Automatic annotation (TrEMBL):
<dbReference type="GO" id="GO:0005840">
    <property type="term" value="C:ribosome"/>
</dbReference>
<keyword id="KW-0689">Ribosomal protein</keyword>
<comment type="subunit">
    <text>Part of the 30S ribosomal subunit.</text>
</comment>
<dbReference type="Pfam" id="PF00338">
    <property type="entry name" value="Ribosomal_S10"/>
</dbReference>
<comment type="similarity">
    <text>Belongs to the universal ribosomal protein uS10 family.</text>
</comment>
<dbReference type="InterPro" id="IPR001848">
    <property type="entry name" value="Ribosomal_uS10"/>
</dbReference>
<dbReference type="InterPro" id="IPR018268">
    <property type="entry name" value="Ribosomal_uS10_CS"/>
</dbReference>
<dbReference type="InterPro" id="IPR027486">
    <property type="entry name" value="Ribosomal_uS10_dom"/>
</dbReference>
<dbReference type="GO" id="GO:0000049">
    <property type="term" value="F:tRNA binding"/>
</dbReference>
<keyword id="KW-0687">Ribonucleoprotein</keyword>
<comment type="function">
    <text>Involved in the binding of tRNA to the ribosomes.</text>
</comment>
<dbReference type="InterPro" id="IPR036838">
    <property type="entry name" value="Ribosomal_uS10_dom_sf"/>
</dbReference>
<dbReference type="GO" id="GO:0006412">
    <property type="term" value="P:translation"/>
</dbReference>
<feature type="domain" description="Small ribosomal subunit protein uS10">
    <location>
        <begin position="8"/>
        <end position="102"/>
    </location>
</feature>
<dbReference type="GO" id="GO:1990904">
    <property type="term" value="C:ribonucleoprotein complex"/>
</dbReference>
<protein>
    <recommendedName>
        <fullName>Small ribosomal subunit protein uS10</fullName>
    </recommendedName>
</protein>
<dbReference type="GO" id="GO:0003735">
    <property type="term" value="F:structural constituent of ribosome"/>
</dbReference>
Length: 104
């Protein structure tokens, strides 16, 4: 059984709407070249919470909480052709989207 190569794309963003639009753009580009795709697979959202005092000195009970959410998606492209890889490298995505690409 031949071993399949896979291009694993991991996309991260703070806003899920921008993330979904970027994933859709990546999927459309890959499907245009007849690539076989697995995904997008939603990964768990990473939530980081910060608690800060509203004021200094004796008002210890007055606190404010902030949170930062990082939304993530995973896309696998099976047996990518050079045309697919070239099309994905020339793709322009909105700012605020982080992409990690690995060849497995």
């Amino acid at each position: 059984m031949p071993e399949t190569q896979r291009l694993r794309i991991r996309v991260r963003a703070y806003e899920y709407k921008i993330l979904d639009a970027s994933v859709r753009q990546i999927m459309d580009t890959a499907l245009r070249y007849d690539a076989k795709i697995m995904g997008p697979i939603p990964l768990p959202t990473q939530i980081t919470k910060y608690t800060v005092n509203r004021s200094a000195f004796i008002y210890k009970d007055a606190r404010e909480q902030f949170e930062m959410r990082i939304h993530k998606r995973l896309i696998d492209i099976l047996n990518p052709t050079p045309k697919v890889i070239e099309a994905l490298t020339n793709l322009t995505l909105p700012s605020g989207v982080n992409i990690d690409v690995k060849m497995m």
